[in-house]
Write a structure and sequence with these properties.
- The chain is mainly α.
- It has one domain.
- It has eleven helices and no strands.
- Helix 3 packs across helix 9, helix 6 packs antiparallel against helix 7 and helix 7 runs antiparallel to helix 8.
- The longest helix has 25 residues.
- The radius of gyration is 17 Å and the shape is globular.
Length: 276
C-alpha cells in the first residue's frame, strides 16, 4: 500500500519547489528527465527507493513537456526519429515497471549508484566517434526502435526519463547533433515517463500529488534551461553536471550503507504475475 503523507507545507514545500525548478533547468540543458536529482531528493525526504523512482516519473511528464517547447520552436525535433523511438520506449517503460517490483530495494539502489557513476564518467570525459553505426533507412529505424526499448526499460526501473542514455546514444551511434539529440530525447521522455508512472500506480508506488508539485515547479526551469543550452558553454555545463552526479552517487551509496527499514510496498499476489 502507498505510504500516507500529509500535504507539503513551509520548508518542505519550498524544498520541493526548489528541487523541481532545478530539475527543470537540467532537463532543458541536457535533454534529460532529471530523475537522477529527483530520486535522490525524494529518498532524502523519506520515500523508499521504489516510491522515489515511480514519483519522479510523474514529475518528468510536466518538466519534459515544457523543456521540449523551445527546441520544437527552433526546429530541432526530428519527428521521424521520435516516432521510431516512442512506441518501443513506451513498451519498455511498461515492462520495466514490472521488473522493478521484483528487484530488492538495496539492489535497486546499488544499480542506480553504478548508473550515476557511469553517466558521470561519460559526461565528464566527453568526446567519442559520432555516427558510429553509419546506418540509414530500415536499419536506422530498427536501431532507433531498439534504443527506445532499452531506454524505456531503464526509465521505468531507474525512475529516470531515459535521456541520459538516449542523448549520448543518438549522438555517438546515430550521428545526431547535440541539440537535435536533446530535442528528440525530451519528446520521447514525455509519453515514456507517463506510461512508467501509470504502471507503478498499480503497485501503489506513484505519489501523483507530490509528482505534480515537482513537475509544475520544473516548467519554468525547463523553458529557461532549454534557452540556456544555446547560450552557455555546454562542455563546461557537462563537466559540472558530471561532478554533481558523482557527488550524488557517493551520497546515495553512503545512505545505502546505513541500516534502514525497507519501506517498500508489498507485492500483491495478483501483481506478482502482472505483465512484466
Amino acid at each position: 500500500m502507498t505510504t500516507t503523507r500529509g500535504p507539503l507545507r513551509g520548508s518542505a514545500l519550498a524544498g520541493a519547489l526548489a528541487i523541481g525548478a532545478a530539475v527543470g533547468v537540467l532537463s532543458g540543458l541536457f535533454g534529460i528527465g532529471g530523475g537522477a536529482l529527483l530520486v535522490v531528493g525524494l529518498v532524502a525526504v523519506g520515500f523508499s527507493q521504489h516510491e522515489a523512482h515511480a514519483t519522479s516519473l510523474s514529475a518528468m511528464v510536466l518538466t519534459a513537456s515544457a523543456a521540449v517547447v523551445p527546441f520544437a520552436i527552433a526546429g530541432e525535433v526530428d519527428v521521424a526519429a521520435a516516432i521510431a523511438l516512442t512506441p518501443t520506449a513506451m513498451l519498455g517503460a511498461y515492462l520495466g515497471a514490472g521488473f522493478m517490483r521484483r528487484i530488492p530495494e538495496q539492489q535497486l539502489r546499488t544499480a542506480f549508484v553504478i548508473m550515476l557513476l557511469v553517466i558521470a564518467a561519460r559526461m565528464g570525459l566527453g568526446g567519442g566517434i559520432e555516427g558510429l553505426l553509419d546506418v540509414d533507412g530500415v536499419a536506422e529505424i530498427s536501431g532507433l526502435a531498439l534504443l527506445g526499448l532499452a531506454t524505456g526499460v531503464l526509465s521505468s526501473i531507474m525512475g529516470i526519463g531515459g535521456g541520459m542514455l538516449m542523448v549520448p546514444a543518438l549522438v555517438l551511434l546515430f550521428g545526431f547533433g547535440q541539440h537535435a539529440a536533446e530535442a528528440i530525447s525530451l519528446a520521447v521522455i514525455v509519453p515514456t515517463a507517463a506510461v512508467g508512472a501509470w504502471r507503478h500506480t498499480r503497485a501503489g508506488y506513484t505519489d501523483w500529488r507530490r509528482g505534480s508539485i515537482l513537475g509544475s515547479a520544473g516548467i519554468l526551469g525547463g523553458l529557461a534551461g532549454a534557452q540556456l543550452a544555446l547560450a552557455l558553454d555546454e562542455r563546461l555545463l557537462q563537466q559540472l553536471f558530471a561532478a554533481f552526479l558523482a557527488i550524488m552517487a557517493v551520497r546515495l551509496w553512503w545512505t545505502k550503507r546505513s541500516p534502514k527499514r525497507d519501506r517498500t510496498s508489498p507485492v500483491e499476489p495478483d501483481e506478482a504475475d502482472d505483465g512484466g
